[in-house]
Design goal:
It is a single chain. This protein has about 450 residues and is an alpha/beta fold. The protein contains 11 helices and 15 strands. The strands form 3 sheets. A 6-stranded antiparallel beta sheet has the order 3-2-1-4-5-6, with helices on one face. Strands 9-8-7-10-14 form a 5-stranded mixed beta sheet, with helices on both faces. A 4-stranded mixed beta sheet has the order 11-15-12-13. The protein is globular, with a radius of gyration of 30 Å. The N and C termini lie far apart (about 80 Å).
């Protein structure tokens, strides 16, 4: 039965390949009637021609790689080791190239190694590769061949999405611990300006996280009095509620498990962090990108660099400008997220085996696989700088992402290099002053250990 099925599948593949070859021949023959002639036929035949840049800013970047490393893959690294799917991708491309060369030249050449590899992504065609391969003949002599390959994009389809509007009420969930309570005042001011003064349909739900080890003193007493102040300030109320959570190991799961009990299943929840700036544009984007029973939203926000490293003098600007010298879009963080309460409850019910101490909400929704996890750059989400503490107890991937975010969140490479250069100049000047004083006969020689 299986042999018969395999036979007919092979026949179908042969027939399909024959039809493709005939279609390619027809395209080449008909190309003489086109304005570009045969020279205008793109490679591979039948695939969209390469992107033609209109200016130097539209030129697509080629990434250089070898069998083990990729060079200048992004703005923050010079060389990276190929791992995981990236390593598998390079191995697959080399395997296909060797198979095609063997089909053309037979067994007279054997693959030796990869000299150079280049790849780029063209949104109109797919992933293009250029490989310089070294082959050996029967006499052991080396022969270098350049191979061009293309991993074409499949047929692009528009995914049908349910209809949503910007009228949904957003419930902002803000966890506060004793270590980050200093930034709550700024967040409350931002909430009052964005939501209360403008009449935006949004509520604020605060989770005060208490450490059971601490004493009986209420460390959040001042913040609770501020909430009362806002309630009295606005005639219709400030729409701010809060609960207390006593735990020594707060995670996203323990926080959201407590919060989900306070809301109806159809409630739209937005998990916030201290330091983020609220805006009507961002809240509307949350409403449009979060769909009940269909999609959750994890925006990539713009994070500010450390102010004393990027600004020369005080006072620092009160607003965050999107600029490469002010901050960057941090793809390593998944702190802010929006989802419907029913989707969270369903994911928690189906993901009971998830290790809460080593996972986050993003990994839970991805592993569940029943919802679209939408991840995109969000220019309306701006976040002020804060020192990040990485917990080694996290999952290895999450811990490494935290370290990367902390190192890249200080300042740009150019700014850090300039700071190091200026510091080294100051040190050199101090050494010169010391040497001059040592040569002065009126000044006693200093201890050499002071120059170390």
């Amino acid at each position: 039965m299986y042999k018969l099925h395999r036979h007919f599948c092979e026949q179908e593949l042969v027939l399909t390949q024959r039809l493709l070859d005939e279609t390619k021949d027809k395209i080449v023959k008909m190309s003489v009637l086109t304005p570009g002639g045969k020279a205008g036929v793109s490679w591979p035949v039948g695939v969209q021609e390469p992107h033609k840049p209109k200016s130097r800013f539209d030129v697509l970047k080629w990434d250089y790689f070898t069998e083990t490393h990729v060079y200048l893959a992004n703005d923050f690294s010079n060389v990276q080791e190929l791992k995981g799917i990236h390593k598998q991708d390079v191995n697959d491309v080399i395997t296909v190239a060797v198979e095609r060369l063997t089909k053309k030249y037979g067994d007279q050449y054997k693959y030796s190694h990869l000299v150079n590899g280049y790849k780029r992504f063209d949104a109109t065609r797919g992933l293009e590769y250029t490989l310089d391969l070294v082959l050996k003949n029967d006499n052991g002599e080396d022969l270098q061949k350049r191979v061009h390959l293309l991993r074409p994009l499949s047929l692009v389809e528009i995914v049908p999405m349910p209809y949503v509007t910007e009228n949904s009420r957003v419930n902002l969930v803000l966890p506060i611990s004793s270590s980050n309570r200093d930034g709550v005042v700024s967040f409350l001011d931002s909430y009052a300006h964005t939501c209360l003064d403008s009449g935006d349909s949004a509520n604020l739900f605060i989770v005060f996280i208490y450490d059971p080890v601490n004493g009986k003193d209420d460390v959040f007493g001042v913040l609770k009095s501020m909430i009362t102040y806002y309630e009295n300030k606005y005639q219709n109320g400030a729409r701010i509620a809060w609960i207390s959570l006593h735990t020594s190991n707060p995670t996203e799961f323990t926080i959201m498990d407590a919060v989900s009990k306070k809301f109806a299943p159809e409630s739209l929840l937005l998990l916030c962090t201290i330091g983020m700036e609220l805006s009507t544009e961002f809240l509307n984007r949350v409403r449009m990108n979060t769909i009940n029973g269909w999609q959750v939203f994890f925006p990539i926000g713009f994070y500010q660099y450390k102010p004393n490293l990027i600004y020369e003098e005080k006072p620092y600007p009160t607003t965050i400008e999107i600029s490469k010298n002010v901050g960057h879009f941090d793809r390593s963080l998944y702190e802010q997220s929006s989802f419907y309460n029913s989707d969270y409850l369903s994911a928690r019910k189906n993901g009971t085996e998830i290790d809460e101490s080593k996972n986050d909400l993003f990994s839970m929704f991805v592993k569940q696989g029943k919802l679209h996890v939408f991840r995109a750059v969000e220019p309306a989400l701006k976040h002020r700088y804060r020192h990040r503490v990485c917990n080694p107890a996290l999952d290895e991937g999450a811990y490494q992402r935290c370290l990367v975010s902390r190192s890249q969140g200080l300042a740009s490479r150019a700014q850090l290099a300039m700071l190091i250069f200026e510091h080294q100049q100051k040190v050199d000047k101090m050494h010169l002053k010391v040497l001059h004083k040592q040569n002065d006969p009126n000044v006693n020689h200093m201890n050499p250990n002071m120059l170390k």
